[in-house]
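Table S7 (text form). Paired inputs.
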Amino acid sequence: MLRVVRLPGLAALFCLITAASAHAQTVIITNAPQGTSLEFVLENNVEGTAMADAMGVATVVANEAHLGTRQMDAVVLVDNCGTTRRVLVLDKSAQEPPAGTCTRTEMNGVFLVQRITTLVVNVGNMPPTLLQRQGPAPAAWLQPTNSGSVVRIPYKRHFVVSAGYGLMQYRNFPTVACGNINGCIYDKVSESPTGALAYWLMPYLAAEGGYMRFSRLNAGTEGTTFNFGSDLEGGAFTASALGAIPGKKWTVFGKLGANYQGSTFTTHETVFDAGAGNENGMRLVAGGSQTLQYHTAGWGWQWGGGVEYWLTKQVGVYGEVGKFFINGSDTNGGEGTTSDTANHVFAGVKLRIPSFF
């Protein structure tokens, strides 16, 4: 038992020494089936091959002259070719070579590859997973995976900027604006531009902050003795946790969070001049106009979900549906309050921005 425990450590130490002594890019595969060989392709160059050892680890170091001192934003592809695992590191703008009869997996994200970069690909996972370090790989990365333990999903963290436009349908605005006045004409749906910035910590988890604007909703009517008009407009900052089921092109996501809204409700009303009289005759009763306005702000919940489709590695489109709970109290200490819900539908574009944190 003691020998079995030491072997993984010795294999890891050997790989670390190999990686540390190299001054060029290094690719290591772990948990490879017995008899598996590693082939490392850097841009258009086959850097070499190596056979996995008894612990399922194989290492190939690139020719230092091929990348030199420059660095590149790269995509990483892993081809399963039977007893060979081919790891391709390509500039993100380069054309991918055909996979042939191999099964290809693209690692999710864009990776900064420098002279000192080490990539560790766990080919024991389905699909393969990737860990990256600017320098030698830690020994823990090279240990065989215990099939009974939880496998962490390595991921290249990144930002996603989104911009969209959509519709919000309010539930309570007609009741608040019109009351019980017959013939009141009102809006229930506003147009809403929106934007957000998300930081993806893992393929399935992100934090997002954003802002959305509510276009003006109007309500009003005119009677024989009066007319009035009311409107509501505002916007909200949002903070959400995102969960996702990622895919190569399609991603299904859901979100749950809070919003802080600020909105202004304004009413203009006019009472017309009218005649009034009794047995002593008629007299004119003057009308008048007034404007009532209050501003509210406060926190509310929100939830939603949708799908996104990535046209390229950096650019995608999305659609989203959900609900906002809009609450607030008068910022001037008055009695005005806002309490409403709004269903929303958004669509827009997303841009993936690499992060090297």
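Next pair, protein 2 of 2.
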Amino acid sequence: MPLYSIRRNIGAVTRDEIDAAGFRAIVCASEYPGLQWIRSFWHEDGQFLTCYYIADTPDQIRQHAHQSNIPCDEIVEVTEILPELVPGAPAREPANAS
């Protein structure tokens, strides 16, 4: 299934409001088979969220956002690139290594 980046212009909100939106997104997701919230990044100064979802279609994401009462201003299909999968990249130490 495709991976999507979603920009959500949320304005000035509190952490409690972010958490409430996340809760609504989790509860509503069960109604959309295949939809999976991967992670989100809160750009507090820019007043927006960047969220990553796996979904069948962008329309599935829009419907979920509407039902969750969360903005959905831009959806772009993306490809994940991980440092450890770059050909020839040296092995990385685990983050908790001393």
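Residues 15-29 form the longest helix (15 residues).
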